[in-house]
Amino acid sequence: NAGVMQNPRHLVRRRGQEARLRCSPMKGHSHVYWYRQLPEEGLKFMVYLQKENIIDESGMPKERFSAEFPKEGPSILRIQQVVRGDSAAYFCASSPGRGMNTEAFFGQGTRLTVV
Amino acid sequence: GESVGLHLPTLSVQEGDNSIINCAYSNSASDYFIWYKQESGKGPQFIIDIRSNMDKRQGQRVTVLLNKTVKHLSLQIAATQPGDSAVYFCAEEEWNSGGGADGLTFGKGTHLIIQP
Fold first, then answer.
1. A108–B104: do the CB atoms touch at under 8 Å?
2. A38 within 8 A of B101, measured Cβ to Cβ
C-alpha cells in the first residue's frame, strides 16, 4: 500500500510563475490536509479538503493560493504569481476520516524554491 | 494568538541515555496531542499520541506525559539510538462540536542530537 505521494519533490519557479503541487492520498483516504513549513520551523496548517469539498481553508493566504481535491485524481495546491516568500516545503497528509490520528500519514513534501 | 511551542531548540544526549523533550501549549480546549519525528528531507512521522482525558501513554521506548494543569506535554525516549536523531514536533488538535477536527497546530520543534 503506497503512502501519501507528493510530486514533484523539488520545484523551482521564477517570481511571477505558477506553482502546482500534487498530492495523492493513501488508498482509502478521502481527507487531505496541506501544510507549509518554513526552514527551522514547524508546519503551519493551510487547508483541509474532502473529495470535491473544501472543509477548512483558514490557513490559506487570501490571494494567489487555491486548493482542490477533485472526485478523480490528486489534490492540487496551486500558487499563482509566486514570490520569494512562498519558498518553503509543502506537506500533504491524508486520513480515512476527519482529524489527524494514528491512521493519518504525511507525504515526503514538495520543496518549492522561488528564484 | 494561541500556539504550541517548545522550550529548547536543540537537545544533545549520549547514545544509550534517556531524553526528554518538552512542549508547552496554550489552547486549553485542545483535545488531542501528537508527537512527530521529522528527519532531514522527509515528512513528519507519527510517534505517539495522547488524548486529553489521559495523563500518560507508553509506546515502544517512548512515553508521552500530559499535564493539563500547566498545559505541558513531554516526550521521553528511552535508551536513545543514533536513529533517534531528528527534529521532534509536538502538535495539538481541537475537536469541534461536530465530532471532528480541522488541522493540527505545530510547535517549532526540538532538534535531538545523539552523540556516540
1. no
2. no
